[in-house]
Amino acid sequence: MSKSEDKSLTAKECMQRTEEVIMHTYNRYPIVWDKGSGVDLYDIEGKKYLDFVSGIAVHALGYENEKWKTAIKDQLDKLTHISNYYYSVPMMQAAENVTKASGMDRVFFTNSGTEAVEGAIKTARKYYYNKKGKADSEIIAMDHSFHGRSLGSLSVTGTKKYREAFEPLIGGAVFATYNDLEDVRSKITDKTAAILLETIQGEGGVYPATKEFITGIRKLCDEHDILMILDEIQCGMGRTGTMFAYENYGVKPDVVTIAKALGCGIPVGAFATTEKAAALVAGDHGTTYGGNPLAMAAVNAVFDQFEELQILEHVKMVGAYLFEQLELVKEKYDCIIGHRGVGLIQGLEFCVPVGDIIKKAIEGGLILINAGADVIRFVPPLVIEKEHVDEMIRKLTASIDAVM
Ligand SMILES: *Cc1c(COP(=O)(O)O)cnc(C)c1O
Asked: Is the shortest distance between the CB of 263 and ligand 1 below 6 Å?
């Protein structure tokens, strides 16, 4: 397609032509995005939207942060890719940043969240293999969890609709009820290699783990020499007001998976482990792109900006404000039956499917997303201000009023 065609293309044409050639794995909203700036998005007709989705918890810094952009452009001018058979300074720095922020000792960089989970699963299996000298391990995962779409991650994803058509999946996955410590305990056998959970279940409807659950699992893992794997792909990287959500519970996992906001829009993920859990050695795991200097430059810029903009303090402040304001919304409507979450990952549960409310909000210039059929999930850029919360609340309540 030529540049001039690009200019004259209408949203309708773009959607039609896309639908003719793209695989139908998503039911897309009828918007064609053109650009982003701060916490706003613009469609190709120039209409402005307030964004409370951030590409699903990706754009922590908002759109087009200048220093992030400059760091990527500078790296682009030097070197974008080099094999993992060599070293680079950006990778060294990114590995130092991730280990320091997470309290882990070693990190492996991937290109996506699901690959990070794959790496965590392989770590658990290898750890067990080293210990027992046999390969028959099990992983306890949670009902209603979400860990990604590749076959290993799908195997530990406890949501039937994602799995059903693709079975048989990898063996050894055992499911327990989230926030039910006794159920998890009852599923432990001498084959259990790891317990895997999201610190806050994101896709499943924004369900934070209880303190008893997280600390109880830490204790069980210590007692049985089982790896505790926390998937912080959605709730990590500052979203709860701490760098990782597990800090709010005073525990440290043996393995953590990270992605979404790690590159703030450049595709990158990671799994990090303690020294003890770092069971993967040369030959066990690899990736062509993972850890390339371009992605690492983005990661380093993200960590620099987190510090410079004091993102964590900001999320604590504006997250508490969002919580107060959503509580008021909940009190106002009988059809809202739950409000959960912390920092800038919160959910409102309705007694009806939320699809129509979201469509109305989009018409009114507010981007929202669901988490399950009945929950509206709020995962805005971490740089939003109170005034953006106020604007969101006005548009949200107008949308609820119009639909209900
Ligand atoms: C998004 C997500 C994933 C998968 O990440 P992808 O980059 O889409 O593969 C895994 N776990 C959690 C908790 C997520 O939110």
From this structure: no
Task: Count CA within 13 A, CB hemisphere, residue 2.
Answer: 3
Structurally, the chain folds into a number of domains equal to 2
Burial class of residue 185 (count of CB atoms within 10 Å of its CB; 0-12, 13-18, 19+): middle
CATH code, 18? 3.90.1150.10
240 Cβ closer than 6 Å to some ligand 1 atom = no
DSSP code for 150: S
Task: Domain of residue 335: give its range.
Answer: 3-61+310-403
Q: Is the CB of 144 under 6 A from ligand 1?
A: no
d(CA 342, CA 208): 8
Asked if 140 and 196 count as a contact pair (C-beta separation under 8 A), the reply is: yes
Task: Tell me the torsion sign for CA atoms 252, 257, 259, 260.
Answer: negative
Nearest residue (by CA) to ligand 1, atom 7, is: 113
* Same domain, residue pair 214 and 348: no
Q: How far is the CA of 344 from the centre of ligand 1 (A)?
A: 17
The verdict on the CB of residue 198 being under 6 Å from ligand 1 is yes
- Residues 195, 197, 199, 203: what is their CA dihedral angle, to the nearest 10 degrees? 180
Q: What is the pLDDT of residues 210-230, one digit of tens each?
A: 999 999 999 999 999 999 999
Provide the H-helix boundaries in 22-58.
Answer: 54-57
Tally of CB atoms within 10 A around 130 = 10
- C-alpha 180 to ligand 1 mean position (Å): 23
Verify that 155 and 167 share a domain, yes or no: yes
Q: What is the DSSP letter of 210?
A: P
Q: Ligand 1 pocket, 300 CB below 6 A? A: no
Element (H, E) at 109: strand 106-110
Res. 25: pLDDT tops 90? yes
pLDDT score recorded for residue 215: 98
Compute φ and ψ for 358, nearest 5 degrees: -65, -40
d(CA 32, CA 18): 10
DSSP letter for 34, please. E
- 393: number of Cβ within 10 Å: 16
